[in-house]
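Worked example
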Amino acid sequence: MHDADRFLRAELPVVAAEREAEAVAEGSPPEELGNNEILIWHVRPSEVRAPELVDQYERILSVSERERGDRFRFGRDRHSYLVTRVLVRTVLSHYTGIGPTLWSFETSSYGRPAITYPPSASALRFNVSHTTDLIACAVARRREIGLDVESLERANVRIELADRFFSPAEAADVRSRPAWRTRFFEYWTLKEAYIKARGMGLSLPIEKFTLDLQEPRDIRISFAPPLRDRPETLRFQLFDHLPSYMMALAFRIARQERVVVRVGPTVPPSFGAAPATSVHEGPSPTPVGSIEIVPEGPRVFLEGEEWGAFPPIASKT
């Protein structure tokens, strides 16, 4: 932690607590985040260009975050970093009512970030991912989650990478498809999401676990020695509703538990209503239903049959 940040944390028992109370009193009441919910918010940095909004973002960052941002060589990278940090802070604040400037974080030896302040938010888990002009943040309570987003237009992707990083079954699946890039990114984002949910970084050999994508609403995972895990506790979700992007979520689920996943766009600090995109239940690995995002509103499918269409969900005022 930066020395200036340590100084600010030292004043937290008195001054920052007052600031936190003021921020909660002046802001909107926090939105409830249930124990059975996972929320994903995504933003395009190119939509954050108003000078007054960028100035507001700059004031939200900690001293060490601002210094790190200044070290980026290119302006677009500095801007993406700024929006990323603000997205994390404002998403967490949205579900707690705590001011976005008051959060403190630490990074594990594997590079996984965690909340160190305030202690009252210790149950929150979050994961963030970014690619070209898209940043996404997932948040949940007492649940390990992993999120990955990738641009389908990345120029440095070759089919040989599947042989190098995927299991033999996954690589064969990619090679069998004329439109192999989409399948490649489905595997890639799911693998990254699982690794991030485990919180062990690239210490996990990604070729030692295999994802089965034959049923998109029932994605399975298996492991080869020496890698071990409990596949029955894992759920996966792919999102391809954003043109030119692939997003994947991995998370844990308990027996007889029902988990609802919601995803929506935002331009922090404004958050609307995120529609549900999937419902998962344990211990069966088969989701009870899924919801496809379409222009006229989410459309529900149960056991492969179309059940009906919900009207578009209006943003909160």
Observations:
- The helical segments are 3-10, 12-26, 51-60, 63-70, 75-94, 160-165, 168-175, 180-198.
- The domain at 43-286 is CATH 3.90.470.20 (Ribosomal Protein L22; Chain A).
